[in-house]
Amino acid sequence: MATGAISETDLTGDTRTATKPLKYIQFEIADCIARLTMSHAPHNVLIVPMMKEMAEAIESLNGRTDVKAILLQSSQQAFSAGISLEDSRPDRVFQTLDAFTRVFQAMVDISKPVVVVVNGPAIGAGSELVGFGDVVIATPKAKFAQPEVKLGVFPPFAAVMLPQLIGQKKTYELILTGEALSAEDALHFGFVNKVVPEKELASHVDGLLARIAEFSGPVLEVTKRVIGNSIGLPLKQAMKTSQDLYLNELMNLEDVQEGLRAVIEKRKPVWKNK
């Protein structure tokens, strides 16, 4: 698929390129990976049209068996400087939060693993965007901050998400002071998975995506759903949810049988992705 437009795939697998070009992001699919690159110069300030493009790109991947993972990254020096001041005005904030929520909901609802790469500041809504990734790779140039208190507001999503990710005490500190979290501190508190030198970033990310692409797409999707659906549930209920998906969905996949045969026959599995 060509960069700069969202494609739609019908039931026969034919791809039709959307007539409306993308202005604020780059979006392409190659080698089982959908790459969404924020490219709103100079700091990837999030505006409503940009967030609409992001949400539509992610939503367009629902049901696509040729995509195994999503890569979210930036082409700018900053990952994202957050919501624009113009779109933060009281008379526009409803539309802004609606667009903002749609992006996050798309990231949560999509069955594909979302890998986020951060090679610069992620501020405000940009940092919240990182928090909704499934795997986050950062460089030492990354930093994460929720400075909304300095503007007289609070970060609506970070306030409920960060306690689960980095703990209650650190959440209070970050949100009430607006101070930034360094890449190494983010790694320590579990906000990012790895911090790698900038010169090794591309090879590390490519290696991670290649490993994910080796596996069955439907198995990856069920696995992500189990993890996501279990967060916050009591242990007994979470175990029941996992068991139900394992027995009623996972065991019905052809790839499960292929995986078992491959082990017995001492060979690599040949996934049918169904």
Describe the structure.
This protein is α/β, with parallel strands linked by helices and 274 residues long. The protein has two domains: 5-213, 2-enoyl-CoA Hydratase, Chain A, domain 1; 217-264. It is built from ten helices and 13 strands. The chain has helices at residues 48-59, 93-109, 125-131, 158-166, 168-177, 183-188, 198-213, 217-230, 235-248, 254-264; strands at residues 5-9, 15-21, 25-30, 33-38, 45-46, 69-74, 82-83, 114-118, 121-123, 135-138, 143-145, 181-182, 194-195. The protein has a six-stranded mixed beta sheet, with helices on both faces. A three-stranded mixed beta sheet has the order 9-11-12. Strands 1-2 form a two-stranded antiparallel ribbon. Helix 3 crosses helix 4. The two termini are 22 Å apart. The model is unreliable at 8-19 (pLDDT under 50).
